[in-house]
């Protein structure tokens, strides 16, 4: 029903816009509408005196649940520029952008070009008593390091739209980025000396902050900021808190005094505030509070945990790696024969995106999430893995065409079974084997697919091995596994898919 209402509002706004004949100011001042506080603050810092920057979602409104009214959409249509963070945060934006005239309204996505972490359900209570879920985690502004990228993206998009204001926008942005650099340095210096790397939070919005400054965010569930936990949940929390010696649990600033007192009395833990900065009241802004001052307060709150030695804190579910088929854990009986139709489609090699740097964000994430290697070492490892001169592979239910530069090699294939491999880590994989029926197939005579699936299913990507010697010889290859994704995806979309898995 909400979607139908939105589309109806969109149509009404188009009519309003057509009748209004535009309301932009006649001078060269740019009228800008932004969605929620961090986007507003970053845009205002870039724009300075060159425009009017307005905040659409007022303080006290839950950003995740916000639904624009007809008036809100009209406000966007009448602006020169509309700035939002990411459709995983402002979920309503894609439909609204479809309904407004983007020839008149310049739309700026602050996370343009940024890869996001996979999302997860957050136990952050709303009026309806339910949590919310993101396909990808949008909370990048809570890392000062990534906030700089948001500012740069806003700056670059505004400069592209208004080149005559380039000097002002760039000077304003540089001055603010200098402040963000100082904040980033303060976070780095303080948290690099952390005696306890783990912090426990009720709102899991701080994954990027933790990732970029060497911490580990641990979430608790079933506890609301404004409602006392049940006796059974209190008992569970008390056991968990005592097991790991947890001294602080971080809530949002709106946690009730009753919840704090109950948890302190029953479990011995203290509540402190980590502000997710989704909004800031006008009163707070009038007092001089801003993104930087609130993030400094967040750092001071984190220090209460990080300045005290502590042990590893596992999530309540134990934090164990899921024993899934995708991770290589399955019974032999679950493996089934597959046909070439599972791989049918037009596919592109990911290797060019590694070479040109498009996937560099992936290696940075891997280094911070997994450790063990630096980003450059991960890139080198995947350079060996992805390397190939086959740019594209076009597959039908019977044929494969290998495209190398301006040449192509197409052959007919038959399925010849599968082979289960066991790796050093103890997990396993399955390769599905195909053989060309053409006598002249050469280096493409023997082909093996691996795609983390073990039974018939349409694949989303695959690793492939091919050669002209034998299937047995291919099974020995463990270091080079050219990887292919659908032709229609951009390099950034492929990078996002990689992070999702």
Automatic annotation (TrEMBL):
Alphabetical list of InterPro entries matching this protein: AdhesinB, Bact_metal-bind_prot9, Calycin, Lipoprotein_PsaA-like, ZinT_dom, ZnuA-like
Residue intervals of the ZinT domain: 322-501
Pfam families: ZinT, ZnuA
Gene3D superfamilies assigned: 2.40.128.20, Nitrogenase molybdenum iron protein domain
Keywords: Ion transport, Signal, Transport, Zinc, Zinc transport
The UniProt record lists the keyword Ribosomal protein: no
Entries under CDD domains matching the protein: AdcA
Leader peptide range in chain numbering: 1-17
Similarity-based family: Belongs to the bacterial solute-binding protein 9 family.
Protein name: Zinc ABC transporter substrate-binding protein AdcA
């Amino acid at each position: 029903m909400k979607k139908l209402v939105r589309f109806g509002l969109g149509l009404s706004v188009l009519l309003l816009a057509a009748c209004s004949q535009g309301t932009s100011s006649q001078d060269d001042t740019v009228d800008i509408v932004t969605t929620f506080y961090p986007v507003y603050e970053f845009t205002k810092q870039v724009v300075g005196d060159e425009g009017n920057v307005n905040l659409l979602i007022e303080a006290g409104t839950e950003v995740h649940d916000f639904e624009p009214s007809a008036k809100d959409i009209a406000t966007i249509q009448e602006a020169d520029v509309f700035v939002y963070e990411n459709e995983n945060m402002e979920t309503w934006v894609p439909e609204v952008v479809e309904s407004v005239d983007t020839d008149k309204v310049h739309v700026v996505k602050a996370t343009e070009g940024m890869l996001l972490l996979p999302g997860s359900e957050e136990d952050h209570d709303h009026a309806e008593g339910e949590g919310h879920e993101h396909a990808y985690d949008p909370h990048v502004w809570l890392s000062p390091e990534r906030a700089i990228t948001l500012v740069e993206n806003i700056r670059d998009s505004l400069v592209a739209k208004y080149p005559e204001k380039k000097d002002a926008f760039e000077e304003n942005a540089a001055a603010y980025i200098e402040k963000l650099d100082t904040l980033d340095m303060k976070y780095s210096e303080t948290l690099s000396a952390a005696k306890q790397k783990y912090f426990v939070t009720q709102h899991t919005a701080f994954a990027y902050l933790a990732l970029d400054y060497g911490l580990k965010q641990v979430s608790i569930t079933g506890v609301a900021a404004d409602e006392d936990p049940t006796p059974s949940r209190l008992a569970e929390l008390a056991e968990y808190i005592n097991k790991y010696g947890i001294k602080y649990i971080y809530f949002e600033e709106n946690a009730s005094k009753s919840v704090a007192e109950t948890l302190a009395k029953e479990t011995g833990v203290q509540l402190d505030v980590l502000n997710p900065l989704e909004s800031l009241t006008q009163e707070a802004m009038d007092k001089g509070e801003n993104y930087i001052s609130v993030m400094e307060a967040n750092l001071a709150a984190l220090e209460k945990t990080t300045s005290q030695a502590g042990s590893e804190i596992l999530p309540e579910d134990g934090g164990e790696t899921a024993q899934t088929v995708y991770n290589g854990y399955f019974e032999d009986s679950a493996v089934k024969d597959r046909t070439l139709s599972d791989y049918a489609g037009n596919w592109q090699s990911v290797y060019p995106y590694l070479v040109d740097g498009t996937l560099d964000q992936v290696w940075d994430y891997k280094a911070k999430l997994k450790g063990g290697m630096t980003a450059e070492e991960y890139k080198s490892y995947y350079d060996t893995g992805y390397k190939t001169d086959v740019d594209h592979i076009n597959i039908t239910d019977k044929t494969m065409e290998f495209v190398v530069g301006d040449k192509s090699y197409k052959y007919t294939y038959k399925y010849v079974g599968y082979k289960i491999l066991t790796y050093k880590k103890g997990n396993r994989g399955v390769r599905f084997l195909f053989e060309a029926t053409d006598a002249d197939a050469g280096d493409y005579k023997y082909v093996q697919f691996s795609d983390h699936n073990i039974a018939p299913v349409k694949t989303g990507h695959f690793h492939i091995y091919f050669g002209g010697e034998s299937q047995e010889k291919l099974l020995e290859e463990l270091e080079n596994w050219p990887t292919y994704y659908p032709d229609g995806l951009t390099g950034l979309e492929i990078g996002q898919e990689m992070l999702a898995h």
